[in-house]
What does this fold into?
Amino acid sequence: SYELTQPPSVSVSAGQTASISCSGNRLGDKFVRWYQVKPDQPPLLVMDEDKKRPSGIPERFSGSTSGNTATLAIRGTQTIDEADYFCQVWDSNTVVFGGGTLLTVL
Amino acid sequence: QLHLQESGPGLVKPSETLSLACNVSGVSISTSSHFWGWIRRPPGKGLEWVGQIHQSGNTYYNPSLSSRVTISVDTSKNQFSLKLASVTAADTAVYYCARKLPGAFDIWGRGTRVIVSA
It folds into this structure.
């Protein structure tokens, strides 16, 4: 089965840029989605098709891919950005989520 | 405005069947071209896709759960449902229903917590 690998945690100082990676075999051949999950809230789609921001998502969120790695970047990180972030792809008629990354804003 | 709301028992005994429903308001499932899915999050773990269904009845299931999962749609009630058989403590989780675009889940319910315990 297909697997996506994310770092368990990322720390960033407030105001700096946070980068969260997601890697998988031949990931560049697939569209990657990113979700933000805060405690007691449902997941929020923050990036679609690698780098498309859904309506309502701040411009400081951006997505990119290079080779087998996709990256979600959050520019000017704020405390409200503290959350778990999950990448997701569609592979062989299944939805696959990465293990998730806890973003801590210092 | 599209709204999804999960409902069902919060406590299920081991070996029994977990049954949840997702009520959809703001759009008709019967005329929607989208899939409708279930995703869960066990405590302290990540998101896990359970499966999804189209109003035509076409379904896709997580291979690791497929032997125990049934997702169905009731267009007359504008809702879709999840049944997970032979549950164990490992099935304890917050269960979300969501609308699936061609690739992403864009609208989610608030989630419902299900505990499997005797």
Observations:
- Chain B has no helices and eleven strands.
- Chain B has a mean pLDDT of 96.
- Chain B touches chain A at residues 37, 39, 41, 46-49, 52, 60, 62-64, 96, 98, 101, 103-106, 108-111 (CB under 8 Å).
- The first strand of chain B starts at residue 3 and ends at 7.
